[in-house]
Write a structure and sequence with these properties.
The chain is of the alpha/beta class. Helix content is about 40%, strand content about 15%. It has a 5-stranded mixed sheet with strand order 3-9-8-4-7, sandwiched between helices. Strands 1-10 form a two-stranded parallel ribbon.
């Protein structure tokens, strides 16, 4: 297992961000915002955005991170079923380009991504929306608008991606605790979770001439895991969360939960107030 040598200081709470969002746009996440995501004009703009994405972002991802994919052959056996009935992917959130990397690896189009509501207020907010971000309001009185939209997404059997660690932490190898909500949706809608884990490789060769900082990336794709609906929803979500997290820990090459905790304690520095990217 390769541990990137880049030194970051991470927040003390495992779900906090190391990016700062400069809110340059006023966006209210009311019913009108989510209704706009369904309009034909938005869908047309999204279509052209995705053409540009495949022409530009896909080659850049491959060139910058030399992405390798493990587990795709086994995953491909399930693609027809997943495309028909819908599914959820979850992954660790460990580099800024992990979303385009996911699209490259899965080869199933673009998912809807429930995400930190603030990012659609940044200068790149429109790009995030076109990419598939579905913002989660911080104001609980607006949460019903988000839920109504995502409910429709699941009922239409679409692909949804969730970052259960919540915050983006650059090149952090251990797997952080998962929020229980990540497993709520599969239990609510009886959808499988496909675990995806990112690990890193040392950057070698000629690519070091133009980028000595970023490591190479390996994406590990697991087989679908169904929720246990013989349990009540809370117990089913807790069981599914553990199953998926344990699988990702295994796929990225960490031997056990104990080893994962040791790495978290011994390999990294934690302190609040450090931000490394502004959006």
């Amino acid at each position: 297992m390769y541990i990137p040598k880049i030194k970051y200081v991470y927040p003390e709470k495992t779900d906090e961000q190391i990016i700062h969002v400069n809110q340059t746009r006023k966006v209210k996440l009311n019913g009108s915002y989510y209704d706009a995501l369904k309009k034909i004009t938005f869908k047309i703009a999204q279509f052209f955005y995705r053409i540009v994405f495949y022409l530009v972002a896909v080659p850049l991802v491959k060139m910058r991170y030399h992405v390798k994919v493990e587990g795709r052959k086994e995953f491909n056996k399930h693609k027809k079923m997943l495309k028909k009935y819908g599914f959820i992917t979850v992954s660790n959130h460990v580099f800024l380009w992990d979303f385009p990397t996911l699209c490259v690896c899965m080869k199933m189009g673009f998912p809807n991504v429930p995400a930190w509501g603030k990012i659609v207020s940044s200068k790149f907010g429109k790009v995030f929306s076109l990419a598939g971000v579905v913002p989660i309001p911080e104001d609980k009185s607006l949460f019903r608008n988000f839920y109504n939209f995502i409910d429709g997404v699941f009922k239409e059997n679409k692909w949804v991606h969730i970052y259960p660690e919540t915050g983006l932490w650059y090149y952090y190898v251990p797997i952080r605790p998962f929020k229980r909500g990540a497993a709520y949706f599969p239990c609510q809608y009886n959808k499988p979770i496909v675990p995806v884990g990112y690990s890193f490789r040392e950057r070698k060769g000629i690519s070091r001439l133009w980028n000595k900082k970023d490591p190479f990336v390996t994406a590990h794709i697991g087989e679908p895991i169904m929720p246990d609906l013989t349990l009540d929803k809370r117990e089913a979500a807790e069981k599914l969360n553990k199953q998926v997290r344990d699988k990702i820990i295994e796929m990225v090459g960490i031997k056990s939960e104990e080893e994962n905790e040791r790495m978290m304690k011994e390999l990294y520095t934690y302190e609040n107030g450090h931000y490394y990217t502004e959006l």
